[in-house]
Specification:
The structure holds two protein chains of two kinds. The longest helix of chain A is centred in the middle third of the chain and has 32 residues, at 168-199. Chain A is globular and about 70 Å long. Chain A has a two-stranded antiparallel sheet. Chain A contains 16 helices and two strands. In chain A, helix 1 runs antiparallel to helix 2 (16-44) and helix 9 (203-214) crosses helix 11. By secondary structure, chain A is mainly α. Chain B has helices at 41-49, 71-74, 91-101, 106-119, 135-147, 165-181, 193-196, 219-230, 297-309, 326-331; strands spanning 3-12, 15-25, 30-34, 56-61, 64-65, 76-79, 153-157, 185-190, 202-205, 213-217, 250-255, 261-269, 280-288, 316-322, 335-342, 349-356. In chain B, 42% of the residues are buried. The longest helix of chain B is centred in the middle third of the chain and has 17 residues, at 165-181. Chain B is built from ten helices and 16 strands. Classes of the chains: A mainly alpha, B alpha/beta. At the A-B interface, helix 12 and helix 13 of A face helix 2, strand 6 and helix 3 of B.
Chain lengths: 368, 366
């Protein structure tokens, strides 16, 4: 929102309340509604947090997992997944009706005015996140007898693992390979979709791209498990299944982060290049791609982070030899014994640092 | 490289933007297209560049129908109104873009870029980011970038918009110098006629359904028609007039869209003995192709010539008119002056006719 709009309202005699009611709120309303819908959808399909927090709490997603895996009630799980998908897709459709524009993931409004209350709020929220992370880091260093690096040594395979049935090094390797492959799929696909969406917004495209946000990853995992289980399309054991699912989860974020960047490239530049004799291929390589570099960086970082952290669908699709870091964290933390808790915490800290670093990279590199 | 726009129409949805527009720009000429905002000036340029496909009509370059050619094969340069300089490239690399596209060798690119930056007076800016340029400088870089790969046709979209008067004059000079120096055929559009009068050889007004284009041209362009019309059946075929090459002399030609010259006239600074001390121009060599007589082309050329004289402080325009044409000159507000005489080359009876520029006809003879 342009600060000058507010200034214009003030010069027209509007007091702060009138400015808020007449300009700020009407302009912000679509963004607030769309943010609220997004939060609703994300919470309604929350899975990893609930599973780690443990008993006493359950969401539809956890119940789907429990029925499918623990109770073997696949049809019951499928009914739950279908009902949930219906509700969430309805919410998403209403959301996209209300906001025809693509939400921008990160924007800053430059202003010289300081807003102390806002800064305090940001610090409180920041601390609320940082304290548990610090606790996690502390836990990773704390054995029953005192401080110890055993968890970290375990994580990096520096000592013979004393934890049976855990393949930590393999999990690190798997996560890295899956993330790179997922990014390799999501970035080109997402950028092409973003390019076409940026030039000509179409609702069906928005709906398809956004579907992975709405449809819970758990339901996707379950769906894949019960669909692709007959020859010749039994792909459940294929190594590429996990990265493909990760890519589809990352896709909406790639598209949403790239669309505003692509929009900011004047379409006349391609035309200018054409009048200078550049073929479509040359225009793409020498004009669009260099200008899209921030978008490519952002998209890569997003999809790497999404893949590294994906838990819901992966929990259905991994097997013992194809486990990933988030799955390993969950399994280690749910086991007794201080070594497994230390190793699990160390793994979680590593994940946080890598994914957090990637998101910081996006913020740094994204022009506002 | 001549350019013909033939019967071009385009509509966006319900809105007709261009309706059967036709014009012709002969090789090396600069034609300005003027019209109010929203009259389709930019659209016309985009059609010539291949950025829009017309609903009807065609674009010809040197007689080749290029209507369906993709933009990058046309070799038609376009200076965008908002320049559209590449933000990720510095000044020199912007200018070099079309050269690299065309596969020039590295030393040739360096040489040509230096040459163009020198011509637009920005040699000292070659390594700078385009973000550091002022509006006028950015426009000159855009001009250099467009001219660098030697396009067959150059299009300029409102090249002087948004510049103050000094910069506008300077840029107009640069544009004229560079286009003429390279013999480039150019079409420029403007909402303001006075902006382009100094640069263009002729002006075409959009939406007039006028398929005839009138331009100032080199004398070679009009000699064939002079010979065909003025010397028909005569032993003396010489069509070289005294003063044809004088600095103040200008030759007007009316073209159809095939590039054929339909009518010509020549305007020379020549004193009239009966009006000494007056700033006078002589109108000579009025010729209209035999199959285009009586279609108003003569009147059109006189109007165009008089318009060009408005800025030259001319008091009187005169001509030696064949007696058969006296009615025509009277209709154009010329007055017949003095006694008739027999012209030596043609052997036909003539009268001097004159028209005052400062007011109504008749001021001088009275």
């Amino acid at each position: 929102m342009d600060e000058n709009l507010l200034a214009a309202a003030r010069t027209l005699g509007a007091d702060p309340l009138k400015v808020w009611r007449g300009v700020t709120w009407p302009l912000l309303r679509p963004a607030i509604l769309s943010a609220a819908s997004l939060v609703f959808v994300m919470c309604a399909t929350s899975y990893g947090v609930i599973r780690v927090l443990g008993s006493g709490w359950s969401t539809v997603d956890v119940e789907i997992y429990r029925r499918a895996v623990a109770l073997g009630d696949v049809s019951g799980a499928a009914v739950l997944a279908a009902v949930q998908a219906l509700v969430v897709i309805t919410a998403l459709t209403m959301w996209s009706r209300r906001s025809s524009e693509w939400a921008v993931l990160s924007t800053t409004i430059p202003t010289r005015r300081r807003r102390p209350a806002l800064e305090v709020l940001v610090w409180i929220i920041g601390l609320a996140f940082l304290v548990p992370i610090a606790a996690l880091a502390a836990t990773s260093l704390r054995s029953s007898t005192g401080w110890s690096l055993a968890g970290w040594r375990n994580l990096f395979g520096l000592t013979e693992s004393r934890l049976p049935d855990t393949k930590i090094v393999e999990a690190v390797t798997n996560s890295a390979v899956y993330a790179v492959v997922a990014a390799g799929i999501a970035v080109p696909t997402g950028l092409s979709l973003a390019r076409s969406a940026a030039r000509r917004p179409r609702r069906w495209l928005t709906a398809i791209v956004d579907a992975p946000i709405g449809v819970s990853a758990v339901a996707v995992g379950l769906g894949i498990l019960i669909t692709y289980d007959v020859d010749p399309i039994d792909v459940r054991a294929s190594w590429w299944l996990v990265p493909v699912v990760h890519a589809s989860v990352a896709l909406p974020f790639v598209v949403r982060s790239a669309v505003p960047l692509i929009r900011s490239i004047p379409s006349g530049l391609g035309e200018a290049a054409a009048t200078l004799g550049a073929s479509p291929w040359r225009r793409w390589v020498h004009v669009e791609l260099p200008l899209l570099r921030p978008a490519v960086t952002a998209a890569s970082a997003f999809s790497l982070a999404m893949s590294l952290g994906e838990f819901g669908a992966t929990s259905f699709l991994t097997r013992r030899d194809t486990t990933t870091l988030p799955i390993l964290v969950e399994s280690l933390l749910s086991r007794p014994g201080s070594l497994s808790v230390m190793t699990g915490s160390a793994t979680a800290v590593l994940l946080l640092v890598v994914t957090g670093g990637l998101v910081v990279l996006v913020d740094r590199r994204t022009p506002t | 490289m001549s350019l013909s726009i033939i019967d071009v129409s385009i509509a966006f949805g319900e809105r007709t933007v261009l309706d059967r527009e036709s014009l012709h720009v002969p090789t090396g000429s600069i034609l300005a297209v003027v019209g109010a905002s929203g009259s389709g000036k930019t659209t016309l340029l985009r059609i010539v560049a291949g950025l829009e496909r017309p609903d009807h009509g065609r674009i010809e370059i040197d007689g080749d129908d290029v209507t369906k050619w993709p933009t990058h094969r046309r070799r038609v340069g376009l200076v965008f109104q908002d320049n559209q300089l590449f933000p990720h490239l510095d000044v020199a690399d912007n200018v070099a873009f079309g050269l690299r596209t065309a596969g020039w060798t590295r030393p040739d690119v360096t040489k040509r870029v230096a040459e163009l930056l020198d011509a637009v007076g920005l040699s000292d800016r070659r390594d700078q980011s385009i973000a550091t340029l002022s509006g006028g400088e950015a426009k000159r870089v855009a001009l250099a970038r467009t001219l660098a790969p030697m396009p067959r046709i150059v299009l300029l979209d409102e090249p002087f918009a948004g510049l103050d008067d000094d910069r506008r004059l300077h840029l107009a000079e640069v544009v004229r110098h560079m286009l003429q120096g390279s013999g480039t055929t150019a079409l420029l559009v403007s909402h303001d006629r006075s902006d382009v009068e100094a640069v263009a050889d002729g002006i075409h007004r959009l939406g007039t359904h006028d398929a005839i284009t009138v331009l100032s041209v080199p004398v070679e362009t009009i000699r064939p028609l002079r010979r065909e019309v003025l010397r028909a059946g005569m032993a003396n075929q010489s069509v070289e007039f005294d003063g044809d090459d004088d600095l103040d002399t200008f030759h007007l030609a009316a073209f159809d869209t095939t590039g054929r010259v339909l009518a010509t006239s020549t305007w020379l600074r020549r004193d009239l003995s009966s009006a000494p001390g007056r700033n006078a121009f002589q109108l000579r060599g009025m010729a209209t192709a035999t199959d285009h007589q009586s279609r108003g082309l003569g009147a059109r050329l006189i109007d165009e010539g008089l318009t060009r004289l408005e800025t030259r402080q001319v008091d009187v325009v005169w001509a030696n008119a064949r007696d058969a044409a006296l009615d025509f000159y009277r209709r154009m507000n010329f007055q017949v002056h003095g006694d008739g005489f027999v012209e030596s080359v043609t052997g036909l009876p003539h009268h001097v006719v004159m028209r005052s520029m400062s007011g109504r006809a008749g001021d001088i003879s009275s």
